[in-house]
Amino acid sequence: MEIINRTLEDVKSSYRFSDTVPLSDYLYVDIETTGFTPRTSKLYLIGCVFYRDDVWQTTQFFADKYSDEPLILEEFCFFAKDFKYLVHFNGNTFDIPYLTAKCKEFNVDCTFSELGGIDIYKRIAPLRNFLRLENCKQKTLERFLGIDREDRFSGGDLIGIYHSYVSNSDSELKRLLLLHNFEDIKGMPEVSKVLSYSDLLSKEHTVTKVSANRYNDESGNEKTELLISFDIDDPLPVPVSFIYDTCYFTGEGNRGFLKVPLYTEEMKYFYANHKDYYYLPDEDIALHKSVASFVDKAHRVQAKAANCYTRKYSDFLPQWDVLFTPFFKRDYESRDLFFELTDEAKTDREMFKKYVSHILNHMSM
Fold first, then answer.
1. CATH number of 2-198
2. Beta partners for residue 301, in sequence order
């Protein structure tokens, strides 16, 4: 067994998981194995990166031979006790269950459930389309963030290389094995910055400016859109832009910008209990029976769900769930929902804060 320690000089700023938990409480972990199933494969390398004494450091626990497997596991478990959180990449699915199974196999006293866990892959995978990623592998995210690496192998490529190394102890094979894991763990603090995009969609942001813009579309029709500028607490490491369902977003650093269509037209508000209403065909509205009972019977009929509405001409913004009430529709069968942009709402920054989050969550679906 061999333990390799290094100090990293060129790691750029990392994502801060918490404003209250020190960075030194987090241990980034990545393992290398000869297969996916613990019972039929070997654990040969556990790599860690951590922040200590104001510098990033790495430690790799390497099994020079198959029989070193329980030794590197014991050393890692002892080492990990100094930390409170494990950070990994798809570790909830693979690394942690694999390590847990190996601890059980070799009777190593180590309970990972006592440590908090942060799975970078799990948090970022839902944003694949939003970030226009071909997949959410670590190397893909590194390319997205502009991180270069020397290693060109995958974990699967190295299985045969490790078996060959155990047979002949070739130093070049060992270099390739350590390099792949080293670049994985070295890149994890910087890759974790991609979680800023997850925060973009999960947190509310301070709206700094709201204005209306009129323009002509490709057919020459006059349209109106609402322009919303807002601050992003956790800066985005790479500028992004996205168009979805008539909305446009662009973000760079600590600045975000949204365009959303603003509709000035007549829409309908549908009352909940149509049995309590009469529909007045001549006026094309519904009135509660307590009022409509005074209307001549010849000019009223029992309301149905589809005609139990009142009409209103105003400015409306789209919403994709009922975030603001009352909500309006163009007709009963329509799935599109809207809310009125009243004069009071136009200056309500808290309302727009919620609306920005609503739009971003919709765009990321």
1. 3.30.420.10
2. 279
